[in-house]
Amino acid sequence: MALLSKELAAQKDRYLRLAADFDNFKRRTAQEAERRAAAQKDAFIGELLPVMDNLERALASPSSLTQQIRTGVEMTLQQLCQLLQRHGCEPDDCLGQPFDPHRQEAVGSRCEPSQPDHVVLEVVQTGWRRGENLLRPARVIINDLGASKVGNTPHSGAAADRPLEGSEP
Questions:
Q1: What's the count of helices (H) and strands (E) in the chain, helices before strands?
Q2: What is the pLDDT of residues 48-68, one digit of tens each?
Q3: What are the domain boundaries of the chain?
Q4: Distance of CA 52 to the CA centre of its chain
């Protein structure tokens, strides 16, 4: 009888361990599926952002777009923005904020004495994030007050932008 009781306890222990292992397996599988789905969503959004950039460029260009076409492009861009926001994506609003190399890519600088040093003066390309994950850094023009000390004359406007070292022109 003691042997049978001992064997029953061992089988019960084995059953409980198998049940716990199976629960852990289900949890890990669900987490992996969520990670995979999030990665696929991020990849899709990454492919969608250049389309939005092109629509924004079309609206910003002083072209001969008819009012109907302009309205259609504006509506399409607005719908795309709403779609991204429904999926947890937000544009990274950094204009006027201190430059953060972890969230922004400096593509040029300008000297504007009325603004603090190393502040974002212009956003060339909007950055996007989903939650805490950065989908794409913002491409920005930053204020470089040190440029006036070197002997450069401060100018305002896009013509005064100068590429930073190592960046593409």
A1: 3, 6
A2: 999 999 898 888 877 767 888
A3: 1-87, 90-164
A4: 14
Q: Which amino acid is at 158?
A: A
Helix (H, G, I), strand (E, B), or coil: what is residue 99? Answer: coil
CATH code linked to domain 1-87: 3.90.20.20
For residues 25-34, average pLDDT: 95
Reported pTM: 0.65
Which CATH homologous superfamily contains domain 90-164?
Head domain of nucleotide exchange factor GrpE (2.30.22.10)
Q: Are 1-87 and 90-164 in the same CATH fold?
A: no
First to last CA, the chain: 86
Query: CA dihedral in degrees (61, 123, 132, 81; nearest 10)?
Result: -20
Give the pLDDT confidence score for residue 69 in this predicted structure.
87
Instruction: Name residue 105's beta-bridge partners.
Output: 139
CA angle 124, 126, 130 (to 5 degrees): 160
Would you state the structure tokens that stand for residue 149, as one six-digit string? 């000390």
Residues 5-23 have pLDDT tens digits of 999 999 999 999 999 999 9
